[in-house]
Amino acid sequence: MPAAPAPWDAPFVPGPVDGVVQIPGSKSLTNRYLVLAALADGPSMLRAPLHSRDSRLMIDALRTLGAVVEEVPGNGAFGPDLRVTPISRSSSPAGKRIDCGLAGTVMRFVPPLAALGDGPTVFDGDPAARQRPMGSTIAALRELGLVVDDGGRNAMPFTVEGRGAVRGGHIVIDASASSQFVSALLLAGAAFTDGLHLEHSGPPVPSLDHVRMTVRVLRGVGVEVDDSVPNHWIVQPGPVRAFDVDIEPDLSNAGPFLAAALATGGTVRIPGWPAETTQVGDQWRSILPKLGAEVSYVDGTLSVSGGGSIKAADLADTSELAPTAAALCALADGPSRLSGIGHLRGHETDRLAALVAEINRLGGDAEETADGLVIRPRPLHAGLFRSYEDHRMATAGAIIGLAVEGVQVDDIGTTSKTMPEFPRLWQQLCATAPSAAAGAR
Ligand SMILES: O=C(O)C1=C[C@@H](OP(=O)(O)O)[C@@H](O)[C@H](O)C1
Ligand SMILES: C=C(OP(=O)(O)O)C(=O)O
User: Which of 4, 192, 249, 298 would you label with 225, given CA atoms 20 to 30 Å apart?
Assistant: First the structure.
């Protein structure tokens, strides 16, 4: 067993930060385009992609299924571009085992691709990944006529028996635990012989922005998708056109840096912010003003400035932005409520339980509701903030540590899931505060 990492002293920054932060590529876009490149009708290019644990796991998974992924020099600030030669229908690697790590995009998006290949593919991941909901993927593949051996667990590990082709057609799933169940099937649907008519039945699909992203990305590579009827998606069979794309910066991962402007009463600018995007992180533009920030967008740069205090707010459907928002609410001047995020109980960890435990460990007053959190103001104190192998818990601890002296994060390295550069970029931003020297420990 690897030794536990040393706790990380979160920089305490009592003065305003004033910095420009360049953000690495989007996880959700990188991993969608990698999947589509593996299915495409020729070689594709991803420019300025994300390089992190989740993207590496996706690359390794696609290589296991027979795609060729090469790193080629590019202009991105955070690593090479990627050239992908699709999975060849004639190649059928044997003994396929896919390590999904803790990546939802890998554990949900790759099984339908394995179904299109020949022979068995085993899916497994981190111990925490075995807790994540997978039942709708397993049920969908069975409804599509495939044999999936999950040992009765309804979770990983499981084996998908590929038969070289998937007929497709109309299937009904319950995607209330994760939007990724929908995205996964849509991404592969054009490669099914009859295409796909996917119907969702059950409580609402969460994180619908991510499904809209999938639909937009598919249309961009020539796949016909009809999403005009709620809870129905129809994907026509046909080729996925090879492509050459620039990956946008990850706007969800921009969140903690923007939050630093509020937590310190400073200003943070993010260049390369897309004018128009399907990323859920674009919601920072509407969320942060509710928390008291001034937000402006000029020439592709988003600027966020904080004032004297953080305002309490009621925020709905914040999806993967919720841990960052919760950290700000723990520093706010009144009670805040986060709703529509019950499915976060099935994320990297049970994020609602984890946020309540860690905010309260520092003296805060947070409570779970059926579908979210209530966070009331209370002075916080020094202590250890546990990350539960969850990158967004680790960054939530870093945000609180800006305003509360003596916070440590137990495993800041877990940010490598989607942003290995986090500790370096955070230190750089913190060093822009005039009082940084006084605050650094
Ligand atoms: O499709 C995607 O890229 C994602 C969808 C969302 O999953 P859920 O619907 O499970 O929240 C999101 O939280 C996750 O970080 C990324
Ligand atoms: C929920 C998340 O990740 P995953 O893609 O593993 O579901 C996340 O990044 O917040």
Answer: 249
Closest-approaching ligand to the CA atom of 31: 1
- The C-alpha atoms of residue 27 and residue 127 are separated, in whole angstroms, by 22
404: pLDDT strictly greater than 60: yes
Count of domains forming the chain: 2
Gap between the Cα atoms of 406 and 416, Å rounded: 23
Check if the beta carbon of residue 273 is closer than 8 Å to that of residue 249: yes
Instruction: Say whether pTM exceeds 0.90.
Output: yes
Cβ–ligand 1 distance for 206 under 6 Å, the answer yes
Domain-located, residue 244: no
Q: Cα dihedral angle (110, 116, 122, 125), rounded to 10 degrees?
A: 0
The pLDDT value recorded for residue 435 is 65
Name the band, by pLDDT with cuts 50, 70 and 90, for residue 308.
Answer: confident
Same domain as 127, residue 39? yes
136, 254: one domain: no
| 18 and 39 both lie in a single domain | no
Confidence of residue 93 (pLDDT cuts 50, 70, 90): confident
H helix runs in 65-175, sequence order = 104-109, 111-116, 135-143
> Which of residues 236, 266, 297 is at a domain's end?
236
For residues 201 and 267, membership in a common domain is answered with no
Per the prediction, the chain carries an average pLDDT of 96
pLDDT exceeds 90 at position 159: yes
Residues 104 and 156 sit within 8 Å (Cβ to Cβ): no
State yes or no: pLDDT of 1 exceeds 80.
no
Verify that 264 and 141 share a domain, yes or no: no
Task: Extract the annotated binding site for 3-phosphoshikimate.
Answer: 27-28, 32, 178-180, 207, 320, 347
Domain that holds residue 121: 27-236
The amino acid that residue 386 corresponds to is R
Distance of CA 180 from the midpoint of ligand 1 (Å): 6
β-bridge partners, 232:
199
Tell me the C-alpha distance between 391 and 371, whole Å.
21
Over the stretch 129-155, which tens digit does the pLDDT of each residue have? Answer: 999 999 999 999 999 999 999 999 999
**Ligand 2 center to 31 CA (angstroms):** 12
Residue among 161, 248, 320, 421 flagged as catalytic? 320
Q: Concatenated DSSP letters for 304-347? A: EE--SSPPP-EEE--GGGHHHHHHHHTTSSS-EEEES-GGGGGS
